[in-house]
């Protein structure tokens, strides 16, 4: 198979995205404009954090909303086929909540950051990256609506309008403007370190268990190490890193929104090298209380809606409970597809 390419700001982008999401559910996103030095700076911060002494890392342990550090094996993405948790540790950064959101699940805590006396640039650099990625995420979400035959659909009130957009990000202004946390709909910056443990699929040991992503869009940056595989029509296919491109996939909400037209493709990470690996998935999602219902452009008399409406927040909460060892289980739940 050939991995499709989408040129982020080209006039063909929506058409390219449509083709890519119908056929593969994954594509390389070029021309996204996120400065390379900013990406490299995030990798440096991750490396510093993950190699701190365990007691120092523990001070930034994830809170009940998974913001902060989640240790090795904490997450199990494919519980049926794994004998232990994913061989990775994670650090999650979200945006700060607006005052009228503080009552919502996942919004009722603030970010957890390492002690600034130990890692002074972790907070500003991850915030700058979060802002830059949110810009790209919002643009790709608009491409997505156009690609699904409903241009402008995501401009409707209640969908992506928890937004206060910062100006475009420049790496040079990092220490002034960009460390201010701006507001977008929901998004999670997920920094991952896979340890050097080789995967053993027969024994149920895997770097990142097979799963589809739960939300709308994932924009992934990886280091040079291989490992990511996607399920393309029943075969596991390697997806190598490509210079200056993000690996982007659409998740379960995208499949629901398009009535199954776009694929939420299963993927996994297998450690075949015995070396550590770093990656940075960025999940870009609609408002917490946005109702995700099949777009009218994807429904017809002969192709009725296959999915019932769900709110984006309920969808996330349902999944968190099943995969995170440390996630509390006292939230309401709603049946998934
Ligand atoms: O590390 C990777 O390449 C992929 C991670 C992933 O699929 C995820 O966090 O959802
Ligand atoms: Fe994933």
Automatic annotation (TrEMBL):
State a single Gene Ontology molecular function: metal ion binding
Keyword terms, alphabetized: Iron, Metal-binding, Oxidoreductase
Coiled-coil residue windows:
none
Q: Where are the transmembrane segments?
A: none
Q: Determine if Oxidoreductase is one of this entry's keywords.
A: yes
**Family stated for the protein in its record:** Belongs to the iron/ascorbate-dependent oxidoreductase family.
In its UniProt entry, what is this protein called?
Fe2OG dioxygenase domain-containing protein
Q: Which PROSITE patterns match?
A: FE2OG_OXY
């Amino acid at each position: 198979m050939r991995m499709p390419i989408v040129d982020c700001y080209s006039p063909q982008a929506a058409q390219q995205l449509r083709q890519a999401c119908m056929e593969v559910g994954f594509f390389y996103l070029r021309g996204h404009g996120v400065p390379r030095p900013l990406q490299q700076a995030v990798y440096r911060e991750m490396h510093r954090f993950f190699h701190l002494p365990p007691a120092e890392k523990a001070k930034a342990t994830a809170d009940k909303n998974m913001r902060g550090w989640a240790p090795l094996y904490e997450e199990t993405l494919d519980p049926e086929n794994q004998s232990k948790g994913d061989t990775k540790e994670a650090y999650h950064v979200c945006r700060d909540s607006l005052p009228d959101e503080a009552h919502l699940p996942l919004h009722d805590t603030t970010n957890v950051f390492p002690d600034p006396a130990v890692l002074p640039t972790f907070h500003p650099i991850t915030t700058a990256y979060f802002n830059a990625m949110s810009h790209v995420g919002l643009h790709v979400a608009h491409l997505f609506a156009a690609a699904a035959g409903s241009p402008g659909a995501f401009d409707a009130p209640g969908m992506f309008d928890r937004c206060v957009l910062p100006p475009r990000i420049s790496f040079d202004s990092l220490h002034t403007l960009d460390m201010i946390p701006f507001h977008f709909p929901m998004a999670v910056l997920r920094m991952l370190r896979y340890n050097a443990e080789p995967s053993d699929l027969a024994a149920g040991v895997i770097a990142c268990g097979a799963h589809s992503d739960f939300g709308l869009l994932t924009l992934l940056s990886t280091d040079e190490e291989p490992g990511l595989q996607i399920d393309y029509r029943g075969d596991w296919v390697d997806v190598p890193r490509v210079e200056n491109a993000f690996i982007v996939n659409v998740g379960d909400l995208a499949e629901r929104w398009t009535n199954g037209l776009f694929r939420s493709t299963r993927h996994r990470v297998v450690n075949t090298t015995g070396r550590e690996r770093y990656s940075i998935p960025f999940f870009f999602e609609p408002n917490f209380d946005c109702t995700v219902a099949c777009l009218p452009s994807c429904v017809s008399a002969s192709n009725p809606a296959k999915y019932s409406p769900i709110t984006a927040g309920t969808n996330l909460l349902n999944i968190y409970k099943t995969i995170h060892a440390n996630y509390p289980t006292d939230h309401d739940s709603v049946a998934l597809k």
